[in-house]
Amino acid sequence: MNLQIEGRVAVVTGGSSGIGFETLRLLLAEGANVAFCGRSAEKLSAAEATLKQDFPSERILAHRCDVLKPEQVADFAREVEQRFGAVDMLINNAGQGFVAHFDETPQEAWLNEAQLKLFGVINPLQAFLPMLERSDIASVTCVNSLLALQPEEHMIATSAARAALLNMTLTLSKQLIDKGIRVNSILLGMVESGQWRRRFAERSDTSQSWEQWTGAIAEHRGIPMKRLGKPQEPAQALLFLASPLASFTTGAALDVSGGFNRHL
Ligand code: NDP
């Protein structure tokens, strides 16, 4: 199936690892030009070098930037405009979760989570909006979490902030469609990627392999597919929603959780 994005331009925030990186690979394989950002210069240049082994350099732009710093995001947008002259798809993926129950969550963490989940989308949207408005296939696609609809006690601040993001993206979908911009989200369950690798490195029982550790988590949590997702799986969902294949879809939240969703 043709995704109709050849020669188009996609911006992926947080593309230097995990889901964002796999999304870049799929976009490039479909013929799109890509721009991506992350905070760590080392991770960014490693990702850029890996992508350039398989795809032409002129179709890839990596820019060091923290999505929470509006001036850095504005610089990123200026560089994308200079290089590609357009943006058709904005994929807001940058972020991480915060694991803590209510009594372990300091006020600072509440503020950080709210800031990351909301301004991690608001800042890139403001910076790239003028270019998106000029596109005839414009889309904004946000990586969100099932926590938005199905909160977990051990991630109370992240769950609340995810719900706020889902609420905001639904409103944005109504407001931006008049400019021809679709806005959708994916709702993730647990996906093997950077944040799980970090938690694996910190596990208490170091005799467990990655497969044993992730399999035990999936079973303990009751994921019907009995495994964590692979980063390519949300990446595929992101590509569908971002591309003209989803041309009549806006305001949607697509579940990518291996059947972990229990809400109606
Ligand atoms: P990774 O840690 O592998 O990737 C996160 C990416 O975001 C990295 O490139 C990281 O680079 C970048 N990033 C983080 N914070 C910022 C920032 N402030 N500004 C710019 N870039 C940033 O994790 P995942 O691939 O798993 O996560 C992708 C998204 O999916 C995140 O939003 C995460 O919260 C969400 N998610 C993931 C789940 C999972 O189970 N994996 C579950 C639910 C949601 P750097 O650190 O260098 O900035």
UniProtKB/TrEMBL annotation:
SUPFAM superfamilies, alphabetized: NAD(P)-binding Rossmann-fold domains
InterPro entries linked: NAD(P)-bd_dom_sf (IPR036291), SDR (IPR050259), SDR_fam (IPR002347)
Superkingdom per UniProt: Bacteria
Family listed: Belongs to the short-chain dehydrogenases/reductases (SDR) family.
Record-given protein name: NAD(P)-dependent dehydrogenase, short-chain alcohol dehydrogenase family
Species name: Pragia fontium DSM 5563 = ATCC 49100
